[in-house]
Amino acid sequence: MTDTSPPPAPGNLDYRVAHLAEHLASGEYGELGVRLELRGDAVLLTGTVPSTQCRDEVLRTAREELAGHPVHSDLLIAGTSSPDHGEDLT
């Protein structure tokens, strides 16, 4: 799906963050639950993503849409590997 909405106003950070949140929620990674928090003039992204590729894509999108503002990441990568040993039940 192509985003046809107008680009966000360059000076209104609240609007730009809301636009980014909408973009992330409606896009390929919409089910992730990535949260955006304003911290002064910076934006913090938090949540859990399934892979490093997904994290990198979310960060790339955030840095493009919020150009000129610091973007900080506290995105965790979900562990999807199999256990390396059996669980000992007693």
Roughly how many Å is the radius of gyration?
A: 16 Å
Fraction of helical residues: 25-40%
Tell me the fraction of residues in β-strands, as a range.
Answer: 15-25%
By DSSP, the count of extended strands is 3
Q: What would the principal axes of the Cα set say about the shape?
A: elongated
Number of helices: 2
The low-confidence runs, each spanning 5 or more residues with pLDDT under 50, are none
Structural class: alpha+beta
N-to-C order of helices and strands: HEEHE
Euclidean distance between termini CA atoms: 51 Å
What are the salient characteristics of this protein?
90 residues, alpha+beta, 3-stranded mixed β-sheet, 31% helix
Describe the secondary structure blueprint for this structure.
Layout: H1 13-26, E1 35-39, E2 42-49, H2 52-65, E3 71-77
Parallel strand pairs: 2-3
Antiparallel strand pairs: 1-2
Describe the structure.
- The chain is of the alpha+beta class and 90 residues long.
- It contains two helices and three strands.
- The chain has helices at residues 13-26, 52-65; strands at 35-39, 42-49, 71-77.
- It has a three-stranded mixed β-sheet, covered by helices on one side.
- Helix 2 (52-65) links the parallel strand 2 (42-49) and strand 3.
- Helix 1 packs antiparallel against helix 2 (52-65).
- The chain is elongated, with a radius of gyration of 16 Å.
- The protein starts with 12 loop residues before the first helix and ends in a 13-residue tail after the last strand.
